[in-house]
TrEMBL record:
Gene: prfC
Alphabetical list of PROSITE patterns matching this protein: G_TR_1, G_TR_2
Main location: cytoplasm
Record's keyword terms, sorted: Cytoplasm, GTP-binding, Nucleotide-binding, Protein biosynthesis
Native species: Ilumatobacter fluminis
GO MF annotations, alphabetized: GTP binding; GTPase activity; translation release factor activity, codon nonspecific; translation release factor activity, codon specific
GO biological process: regulation of translational termination
Subcellular localization, as worded in the UniProt entry: Cytoplasm
Amino-acid positions noted as binding GTP in the UniProt annotation, renumbered to this chain: 17-24, 85-89, 139-142
Full protein name: Peptide chain release factor 3
Pfam families: EF-G_D2, GTP_EFTU, RF3_C
Length: 522
């Protein structure tokens, strides 16, 4: 099959949701429906069942959360679906945002009893600002929940995405009978299975039979669907692909209701891997020579041998294990002798890959997040947006005899993007400030310094509220003003840290000539 044909059968996506909305359950069910798992329940270990969780870090288990992203591939209807996992914790993390730069669509899972929960709003807004196509799944409809029409309003108001229901529930939440496919008018009736462990028996029922058998539940569903017709809330491929409207599906991952409709939508509606635009706005055609970019770096995943894996998304050409790729930043060759797909602790050697696929390159010393790789024709893909840090802390080694290990850890975890390490230009590594999007990043940082570098640290809060990019000239002036600290980022850029947001606003107003740039978000 040609590279273009291979790309056309790829669907690369992520599931985003608030913790507990059902992301893991839906992932399991996707695997079940695709035939990749014989029995659901193998993704997240629950009460002694087989575990294939990402257990890269002890902390994950301690907290019961998944901090590292994994990529999962499975076949469905002759298509290859690449599901990139996003960390499912309550805190924001840059990791999640970076994953979004490597996918072509997302499935947004909402708990239909809760709707959009504040902590995850930001994540949804990022999808919106990047015009990523979003498929919405209103989950847990087997339980009493909120009115679906109300949930649609919430999606529109809070995220600015126009909801276009593809299916509509028959029966109220708690007594869920099935869904109408608004595109065909057909009724899909669901039957419960034992704890949802097997594929739910689905019965395709024609509208007349549905009316006769489901009575008022059917009529009510038809009425509501009619209302939606009237406001032209029909699935629209063009605005979905532009990230303006979102096809909505109703179901229950736990009982498998509606799962197949979502999988079908990923195949039928979500875009295939397409030619990517590079940093100079040129298209890198799918059938050009192989190219990829690094969206995630993770070190020390395997305790038995120290290693560093760079996760790349293939953008063009055919990737073959063993090929030599060049890194655009260093112009150094990288031999891809060890290439694997990584799911949890399991690694499978990958021999070839196509646009849309994710490959974990082992022994990737020298590759950083945002680097592009190419086979022969040079290319640089646009930089992955960095998020403006919102929380700040200082770090101090607890054991003064471990300064060397501390420095090594700082450098590596900064490169990996676990946190941003800011250094005082005069003091170097001795009093770094850590900057992050969410507090949890500090905990991960401290945990890994201790576990992997044997350099336990103390994290102390730092009194800063805002950060701006600046230059040497403005830094001179800012140093004269109190309450501002000038630091240097890993990439050499100068940043100014402000103890008060109010103060920053005043300075911006009073001295408009100073360079105080926002760190791009979104
Ligand atoms: P995640 O944190 O988003 O990955 O959520 P999980 O998939 O782990 O689900 C959180 C909890 O909600 C678990 O106890 C699931 O069994 C439950 N759950 C998931 N989907 C459904 C559903 O459709 N209906 C009901 N009633 N519970 C569900």
């Amino acid at each position: 099959m040609s590279v273009v044909a291979e790309a056309q059968r790829r669907r690369t996506f992520a599931i985003i949701s608030h913790p507990d909305a059902g992301k893991t359950t839906l992932t399991e069910k996707f695997l079940l429906y695709s035939g990749a798992l014989a029995e659901a329940g193998a993704v997240k270990a629950r009460s002694g069942r087989r575990s294939a969780t990402s257990d890269w870090m002890e902390m994950e288990q301690k907290r019961g959360i998944s901090i590292s992203s994994t990529a999962l591939s499975f076949e469905y209807r002759g298509f290859q679906l690449n599901l990139l996992d996003t960390p499912g914790h309550r805190d924001f993390s840059e990791d999640t945002y970076r994953v979004l730069s490597a996918v072509d669509a997302v499935v947004m899972v909402l708990d239909s009893a809760k709707g959009i929960e504040p902590q995850t709003l930001k994540l949804f807004e990022v999808c919106r600002s990047r015009n990523l196509p979003v498929i919405t799944f209103l989950n847990k409809y087997d339980r009493p929940g909120r009115e679906p029409l109300e949930l649609l309003d919430e999606i529109e108001e809070q995220i600015g995405l126009r909801p276009t229901p593809a299916t509509w529930p028959v029966g109220i939440s708690g007594d869920f009978r099935g869904v109408i496919d608004r595109r065909t008018g057909e009724f899909t009736r669901f039957t419960r299975t034992v704890r949802g462990s097997a594929i739910a028996p689905e019965e395709l029922v024609d509208p007349d039979t549905a009316a006769a058998e489901e009575g008022s539940a059917w009529e009510h569903a038809l009425d509501e669907s009619g209302l939606l017709d009237a406001i032209e809330a029909d699935v629209d491929l063009e605005s979905f692909r532009a990230g303006e409207s979102t096809p909505v599906f109703v179901g229950s991952a736990l009982t498998n209701f509606g799962v197949r409709h979502v999988l079908d939508a990923i195949v039928d509606l979500a875009p295939a891997a397409e030619a990517r635009v590079d940093a100079k706005d040129n298209r890198r055609e799918l059938d050009a020579d192989c190219s990829a970019f690094v969206f995630k770096v993770q070190a020390n995943m395997d305790r038995s041998h120290r290693d560093r894996i760079a996760f790349v998304r293939i953008c063009s050409g055919r990737f073959e294990r063993g090929m030599v790729l060049t890194c655009d930043r260093t112009e150094k060759p990288f031999a891809t002798k060890y290439a694997s797909t990584v799911f949890g602790a399991e690694r499978t050697t990958i021999e070839e890959a196509y646009p849309g696929d994710v490959v974990g390159l082992v022994n990737a010393q020298g590759l950083n997040i945002g680097d592009s790789l190419y086979e022969s024709t040079p290319v640089s893909f646009p930089p992955i947006p960095r998020f403006s840090p919102e929380v700040f802390a200082s770090a101090r080694p607890l054991d003064t005899g471990k300064v060397k290990q501390f420095r090594k850890g700082l450098a590596q975890l900064d490169e990996e993007g676990v946190v941003q390490v800011l250094r005082d230009p005069d003091m170097g590594d001795s009093a770094p400030i850590l900057a992050a999007v969410g507090q949890l990043q500090f905990d991960v940082f401290a945990d890994r310094l201790d576990a992997e570098f044997n350099a336990p640290i103390e994290i102390l809060s730092a009194p800063y509220e805002a950060i701006r990019l600046t230059d040497a000239e403005s830094a001179k002036r800012l140093r004269e003003i109190g309450g501002i600290r000038i630091m240097e980022r890993g990439d050499g850029h100068l940043v100014a840290l402000f103890e008060s947001r109010y103060r920053l606003q005043r300075i911006e107003g009073d001295e408009p000539d100073l360079t105080l740039d926002h760190i791009i978000a979104g």
